[in-house]
Amino acid sequence: MTAETPGVAQAAVRLEVATIAWNTIEAAVAVVSGLLAGSVVLTGFGLDSGIEVVSAVLVLHRLRTAGHGEGNEARERRSLRAIGVTFFALAAYLTADGVHSLLTTSRPDTSPAGIAISAAALVVMPVLALSKRAAGRRIAGPLRALVLADAAETWLCALLAAATLGGLLAYGLAGWWWADPAAGFFIVSFALREGLEAWRGELCVD
Hints:
Blueprint: H1 6-37, H2 40-65, H3 73-104, H4 112-138, H5 143-174, H6 179-200
Helix pairs in contact: 1-2, 1-4, 2-3, 2-5, 2-6, 3-6, 4-5, 5-6
């Protein structure tokens, strides 16, 4: 951690721990609910949350070991590339599932639990993102870019929650069955973007 702002760096660590805890719950609820309801977008949202947990663990490790000679950037780059592959696999799965749903006019079941978790994420994720951005701006040295980049990722997670909630409500309230795979395709574009960033190791760049 930076010697100049140890208190702020500790706050950033606590925010990462909170992010990991929330995304773990979010992933479990969304994946189980999505599979039970047959919802493309909800399952994809949960799988993406699981990938974000792994990414947040890497960021947390950087925060805890920076300045102590414990970091291994080459190893972290390999880990990020592995995360990139999982994002690509997620995009392929959602594309295939979404196309199948559109061709077969498959209709998911309404998922109260899915609506609840995505709505809650719309509250939790912006709060975390704002807190991370504030902490990042107060951190001196190379960790500043890392924390600010992670804050931006958290904002994007909030956008995913909005897309997921929109797809679920569009079907649940208006009966627009195609809204579920359509929202899933939005997550596909997000997954491809995140996969490319992880593959390039952008979070490892100070």
